[in-house]
Write a structure and sequence with these properties.
Strand 3 and strand 4 form a beta hairpin. Helix content is 31%, strand content 4%. Helix 2 crosses helix 4. The protein has a two-stranded antiparallel sheet with strand order 1-2. It has a two-stranded antiparallel ribbon with strand order 3-4. The chain contains six helices and four strands. The chain has 216 residues and is mainly alpha-helical. It starts with 6 loop residues before the first helix and ends with a strand. Bound molecules: protoporphyrin IX containing FE. The site of protoporphyrin IX containing FE (HEM) has 22 residues, from helix 5.
Length: 216
């Protein structure tokens, strides 16, 4: 009858077995395409055929059009369409006021001042520090660029989805809703920023300073 194996011997044998199993699993993983560089180094990485590029940004919406044509809508006293005779602005206290609002991620600074974009001192860095830019950035955050009715900035006040503030716009034929949709569907060209001169086509005549907001 063979000598029973000492504890130490048994322990060493089990450890060796485990080590062998892990190594064979790593080997198997490499064989099935793991490892970022075609299966050679990182078994838990992606096969060479899969790439996960970092998303650096999509198209931006126009800042000048927002400031002149959208921010005034967020400040306008608008009736709630379900009756009850309430009028409220989107930026009202309890609604989307950035301090007192209960309106989720859409935050509006009611007193945001228009930025003079003809003043060379107002560089992009200076503008991005302004309250008006905070309103722009928050509103753009509620947008799916190029898709107006999928954008919460419209689907909420149009009550296409539940909205704590009720229905504000009956449909896209509402002049305010049409303007928000126009902003969403006319992003700046890919690769250009939110201050792109391409925004001039969003005004009639094509001058953000003197032109009226499209659609008329
Ligand atoms: C044109 C005006 C308005 C627009 C564009 C608008 C837009 C929005 C958006 C985009 C959200 C979702 C925010 C998130 O993703 O977290 C939202 C939520 C909300 N809004 Fe408004 N809103 C408007 C007017 C109002 C008004 C007047 C009130 C108050 C009477 C109000 C109360 C709320 C509340 C309480 C929520 C959070 C609950 C929810 O997600 O529905 N909103 N609104």
């Amino acid at each position: 009858m063979p000598e029973p194996m000492s504890c130490t011997a048994e322990y060493l044998m089990r450890t060796a077995l485990h080590g062998a199993m892990v190594l064979s699993m790593v080997g198997a993983l490499s064989a099935c395409g793991g490892g970022g560089d075609g299966g050679n180094s990182n078994p838990l990485g992606n096969p060479a055929s899969v790439s996960n590029p970092v998303i650096t940004g999509g198209q931006k919406l126009s800042f000048v059009y927002f400031q002149k044509c959208i921010n005034p809508i967020l400040l306008a006293q608008l009736p709630a369409l379900q009756g009850g005779g309430f009028t409220n602005s989107c930026a009202s206290a309890g609604c989307h006021d950035t301090v007192t609002g209960a309106g989720g991620a859409l935050r509006v600074v009611p007193g945001a001042q228009a930025v003079d974009l003809t003043d060379p001192a107002n560089t992009p860095a200076v503008i991005r520090n302004s309250d008006m830019y905070k309103n722009y950035y928050s509103a753009q955050g509620a947008v799916v660029v190029g898709s107006s009715t999928q954008s919460r900035l419209l689907s909420k006040p149009m009550l296409l989805v539940q909205h704590g503030g009720g229905q504000i716009f009956a449909s896209l034929s509402d002049a305010h809703a049409a303007r928000i949709a126009y902003w969403i569907n006319h992003p700046m060209p890919m690769g250009q920023d939110e201050f792109s001169a391409a925004a001039s086509t969003m005004f009639t005549p094509q001058d953000p300073q003197t032109g009226a907001c499209n659609p008329p």
